[in-house]
Amino acid sequence: MSVFDAADFDDYEAVHFVSDADTGLRAIIAMHDSTLGPALGGLRMFDYANPDDAVTDVLRLSRGMTFKNALAGIPYGGGKAVILGNPKTKKNAALMPALGRAIDRLDGAYITAEDVGTTLADMDILRTQTKYARGTSTGVGDPSPYTARGVAHAIRCAVREKHQTTNLSGIRVAIQGLGNVGRHLAEMLNAEGAELVVTDIDPARLEAAADDFGADVVDSDAIYSANVDVFAPCAMGAAINDTTLPQLQAKIVCGAANNQLAMPGHGAALADKGILYVPDFVANAGGVINIGLEGNANKDEIMQRVDAIASTVTEILTRSRTTGQLPTEVAESLARERIAAAAMAA
């Protein structure tokens, strides 16, 4: 498949394919739009079924980062990188340094950070080869608590929109995925009295959530039909698809995963079922705010910016309710307005 022919190609500024025979590295770096600044977005490592799936993922993710960074109010454009391979079995001592050198050759056009399948330790390794790696142990560190904090804000806003209250006591939330972000989110929601239903591929994570939060554990397929108020996808993308959408019992979808809608039309399908969808690139922006402000703000200032996600979500949901537009349409329009204003001012 030519990248220009990909269904998700949207006038990307650059897409780089990285290959290193000595280490087995195969990676793709996509830079969608740099109007607001250098392309900033995480590095994902995943065992894609085929290279076309990796292309689709990196294109959709980098485009989402353009909107996310614009709505987060940070001076960066949208980019993303993916490594093809199982992060548990395919990492080796030379893999990350090879990618670090590839990123460095872009001379700051792309700045990376931790994402699914990569770790703080990986960022430290990248930093030995390039200064364009963020979220290292000597920088702001793990962004996942900030991501979870933003998602918790977004859930409160959605609950207020649906139930005219921000009190989460007794609100049932299904969390799909208990990785770094999902675990932090579970802890935050539990502290506010929410009742949790959880699933994950790691039994140890499920056991810990049951012990620590009294969470109900369900099989992976059963999470969609769980009798809950909120469904929070916090694993991989495309959680909302033709198979899962009819099963949903929740009236709110709001989580940390990127690209939660398998197809754009699924946003309208959710609305037709009376389900309120908070766009993922708005709700999960806390981590990139933390990364983007590294070196330019203290912790309190970063927290204030993360907490401002609540205001952005409220504005989007209010506009959606008053105009009849889908929340995703409102969010993308708002992001494009900010990008256009920056282009005019340049």
Record keyword descriptors for this entry.
single chain; 346 residues; alpha/beta; Rossmann fold; 6-stranded parallel β-sheet; 15% strand
Put simply, the count of helices is: 12
Report the mean per-residue pLDDT as an integer: 94
State the CATH topology of the largest domain. Rossmann fold
The CATH architecture of the largest domain can be named as 3-Layer(aba) Sandwich
Quote the distance from N terminus to C terminus: 36 Å
Structure notes:
- Helix 1 (51-72) links the parallel strand 4 and strand 5.
- Helix content is 42%, strand content 15%.
- It folds into 2 domains: 3-127, Rossmann fold, CATH 3.40.50; 144-338, 3-Layer(aba) Sandwich (Rossmann fold).
- The protein has 346 residues and is α/β, with parallel strands linked by helices.
- The longest helix is centred in the first third of the chain and has 22 residues, at 51-72.
- Strands 1, 2, 3, 4, 5 and 6 form a 6-stranded mixed β-sheet that branches. It has a 6-stranded parallel β-sheet with strand order 9-8-7-10-11-12, sandwiched between helices.
